[in-house]
Amino acid sequence: MTFGQKVTFVRREKKLTQAQLGAAIGTTGDMVGKYERDAIKPSIEVAAKIADALGSTLDYLIRGIEGSETAEKQISPALIEHFNKVERLPAKDKEHVLAVIDAFTAKLKIQSIME
What we know:
Blueprint: H1 3-13, H2 18-25, H3 29-36, H4 44-54, H5 58-62, H6 68-71, H7 77-87, H8 91-114
Helix pairs in contact: 2-3
């Protein structure tokens, strides 16, 4: 996927219009459309604003992660957003969330061994 395709995907996932994203980053919806069509490439500063406005990362938007081997390593923007929310929790609450994640990953490991 190209930068523009990823921006389009995440923007639609967030249910934002091009105009809303443009306003959030200090430009127009028309300019966002050009980025999404890959007609022009934004500066790194603008790309960072786009990532922030979408709750994503530059790494996700810029890197060309394609193919099954690397796709498994890709973290969805929605999951990144959840991790960012967890990061802002008080330490005790964060410990509880991590314990739940550990429990589910342990369950998955046990299930794969039992199969």
